[in-house]
Amino acid sequence: MANSLPTQFTHVTAHTKANVYFDGKVVSHTLIMSDGAKKTLGLIYPGSYHFGTGAPERMEIVAGKCRVTLDGSKAETEYAAGSTFDVPGKSGFNISVDAGICEYICSFL
Questions:
Q1: % helix / strand / coil in the chain, to the nearest 5?
Q2: Is residue 53 within 8 Å of 87, Cβ to Cβ?
Q3: Which domains does the chain have, with CATH numbers?
Q4: Which has more confidence, 61 or 6?
Q5: Are 30 and 74 a contacting pair, CB within 8 Å?
Q6: What are the phi and psi torsion angles at 83 (to 5°)?
Q7: Residue 56 CA from chain centroid, whole number
Q8: 35 strand-pairing partners
Q9: Which end of the chain is more exposed for a tag (fewer CB within 10 A), N or C?
């Protein structure tokens, strides 16, 4: 399943200013695809964090692993490299990394 995740993006605009959250424990960079779609590429260091969403998002785990609980749910699910999860718009999620670094691609749907 990990082979289905992209390993590179071509013909994109990359924003050089990082998106830094939680005192640098979560860092991403924004990419604008040639069709105008927005993605972020990021790293999550160990800890637990809550993110709100405006638009629906798809999170693809590139490396490492994390545990996620969507807002309104009590179920916690673990996601490892090669897996994805969707978050509804105008919602949010808790994400936890126990060890190492979780690398992700976030697509705004």
A1: 5, 55, 40
A2: yes
A3: 13-108 (2.60.120.10)
A4: 61
A5: no
A6: -105, 165
A7: 12
A8: none
A9: N
Which residue type does 91 have? Answer: S
d(CA 87, CA 53): 8
- Encode pLDDT of 48-87 as tens digits: 999 999 999 999 999 999 999 999 999 999 999 999 999 9
Name beta bridge partners: 87: 57
What is the token pair recorded at 12?
């994109």
Angle at 59 between CA 93 and CA 48, to 5 degrees: 40
Supply the mean pLDDT for the chain. 95
CB 19 within 8 A of CB 40: yes
